[in-house]
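I am writing to request your help with a piece of structural work I have in hand. What I wish to show you is a protein chain and, alongside it, a tokenised description of its three-dimensional fold. Could you please explain, in whatever detail you think fit, how the structure tokens follow from the sequence? You will find the record immediately after this paragraph.
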Amino acid sequence: MLLAIRFKVEGSLRFLSHAETVKVLQRACVRAGIRIQYSEGFNPRPRLSLPLPRPVGVESDDELLCLRVARDPLPAGDAPDGRPAQSDQTRIKDALGRQLPEGCELLSVSAAEAGTAFAPRAATYVLTVRREYLGEELKATIERLLASEHLPIRRPIDEAKTQFKNVDVRRFLKSITLEQASIMVECEISPGGSVRVEEILGLLGLDEAKLAAPIKRTNVRWQGD
């Protein structure tokens, strides 16, 4: 059975890397007693994945965990005594939700078709800007970005940031809106890539010191939505 598990990440957990987030979720599943399916071969691995990696330091209220479980994912005795019979999804939501650390909130658990491909198509990043940096200059920058046909940047391709490639990120920026103190940047995500959070900040002339709150990813749209 394939499960689509939606959850949110906030607070200090936003600093976890993609691999660390996977490990936290895997351990929570084990503690909850969920029977995860494993790959075959000499080095079996749990069949779970996060189709859209979350940038380090970014909060999210729309994360997705894809988890393959056995047909009987929880032992029958795991439901608390005295409670009525529950569906597998409800039992998993209750059991897993109790094992997640503070800052990781489980939102929903649903079954998906076996061959479902969870491919992200768009997401919105919310940037809350300090009051002193809100002004005509920021508005002019947003207007200039939206009016541009091309937005070429140099993207590092190695950890040491000694090698770069040229990328035109204009096609990935669907919209940029300023509402009160928050900038909403809607980004297209395709097999060819997307625009990165640090690139969005650079294009807007911002850095984290100019933000009043952590960056948040929201409104993720998946293939078929």
About this structure: The helical segments are 18-31, 88-97, 136-147, 197-204. Confidence is low (pLDDT under 50) at residues 78-85.
